[in-house]
Design goal:
The structure is a single chain. The protein has 255 residues and is of the alpha/beta class. It has 2 domains: 167 residues, Metallo-beta-lactamase, Chain A (4-Layer Sandwich), CATH 3.60.15.10; 80 residues, no CATH class. The chain has 9 helices and 14 strands. It has a 6-stranded mixed β-sheet with strand order 1-2-3-4-5-6, with helices on one face. The protein is globular. It binds zinc ion (ZN) and fe (iii) ion.
């Protein structure tokens, strides 16, 4: 039986995610930014929280951690790198570590750049990856603690996953990301079509998350740095992928 998923909004534009196994009854929450919203999601689903997987230390991902841990006695899995939140982690992971959750192998993919401690969680059997603030729908996280080379290397790890992998990210930034993507990749017909589709989703208050890796490869400019028309548009035909990535990230920071 595949995991059941329940995504819920909190804060300005965050998403939390519950992963539930109907066989074991275990439930993992990805991040813990808001304990009240997480408890409401648990009440709505009737699931009992057993685990919390922390992607990175930022407060919109960890503020509710202490109270959720105490209330549910959940096991907290988080990054190996120290932070203000890391005293609350029971088990700590780094790149390529694997652990078992409800009979599934979870592969830890370190994707530093937004923060140095960023972890993504890949469950191959479920075709799910939780990308935190690394890869967004048609966008990527702002680089706060790493540099562009580091962030590009992180995105390359996600690019290596199977095309049909379903991507759960932590923010609803898609409308703004689509507008920026079109400024970099104006002749991309799939991007123009997707912008229309996501505007309609948002008008009807539907989430644009999750997405799929093949869709991102077709429309996310941060994953399309080798595309000849994007390179031509930027006047960077002979640059390295990391250089093109850095330029697109720089433009997004000023968009
Ligand atoms: Zn963050
Ligand atoms: Fe965030």
């Amino acid at each position: 039986m595949a995991f059941q998923t329940h995504q819920f909004p909190y804060g300005n534009d965050n998403y939390g995610l519950l992963l539930h196994c109907t066989v074991t009854g275990q439930t993992a929450c990805i991040d813990a930014g808001d304990d009240v919203a997480t408890d409401a999601a648990l009440a709505e689903t009737g699931w009992r929280l057993s685990h919390i997987f922390i992607t990175h230390h930022h407060s919109d991902h960890t503020t509710g951690l202490a109270s959720l841990k105490k209330r549910h006695n959940a096991s907290i899995f988080g990054p190996h790198i120290d932070s203000a939140a890391s005293v609350l982690y029971d088990t700590r992971f780094q790149d390529k570590d694997e652990f078992e959750f409800s009979g599934r192998k979870v592969t830890v993919i370190a994707t530093p750049g937004h923060t140095l401690d960023m972890l993504n969680f890949y469950i191959a059997e479920e075709d799910i990856v939780c990308t935190g603030d690394t890869l967004f729908v048609m966008g990527c996280g702002r680089i706060f603690e790493g540099d562009a080379n580091m962030m590009w290397a992180s995105l390359e790890k996600l690019l290596a996953l199977p095309d049909h992998t379903v991507i759960y990210c932590s923010h609803e930034y898609t409308i703004a990301n689509a507008a920026f993507a079109l400024s970099i990749d104006p002749d991309n017909a799939s991007l123009a079509a997707r912008q229309g589709a996501i505007i309609e989703l948002r008008e009807n208050e539907f989430p644009t998350v999750p997405t799929r890796l093949d869709l991102e490869k077709a429309t996310n400019p941060f994953l399309r740095v080798s595309d000849p028309s994007i390179r031509k548009h930027l006047g960077m035909e002979n640059a390295s992928n990391a250089e093109v990535f850095a330029e697109i990230r720089r433009r997004k920071d000023n968009f």
